[in-house]
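Researcher: Please translate sequence to structure tokens.
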Amino acid sequence: MCSGGCSRCIGVALYPLVLISIICNIVLFFPGWDVKYAKRGEITQEVRYMGGLVGGGLMMLIPAIYLNLTSQQGRGNRCEMFLSILFAAMGVAGGLYSFIVAVLGLDNGPLCKYDGNWTTPFKNSNYTYLADYSGWAGCTEPKNVVQFNIGLFFTLLVTSCLQVLLCAIQMINGLFGCLFGACNKAES
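Model: Translation complete:
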């Protein structure tokens, strides 16, 4: 496969990952599927960092669009391949930001009503709360917030890993395309 065709595949593969990241981050604003917690500011700090919306979403959408559009034009010249390296590096930065926020979200746990107070009860648990289901019942409000946060932050974690991997592959692909040229149908 030519480097231009590989760029197009990577660009297309990034679209669903961008969509998943954006949706997960938006849904995290509504724990228990209720708006009242967001209105009262009773959401974790990691949700406010918007790793999925900014990092895995917007910062990843720009490289995806660029890779898809330039590979469709069929030129794939060396300058475009060099620019694809820069855009892919921006995608790596966005994916890493989303990854770090997701790790922090899993590490600190959700903000919930625990023993009558709004707190993050699992903040210093060193991830042990992830396997200790008995402690989850202490979060009385929002309902099932621990499962809610774990599921969505874990989805963001996996999605950001895939995004970083695809953008890293594109950086290598762009380097080859920059050095050796992207083969086009006209050249073949």
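Researcher: Any highlights?
Model: The CA atoms of residues 23 and 53 lie 8 Å apart.
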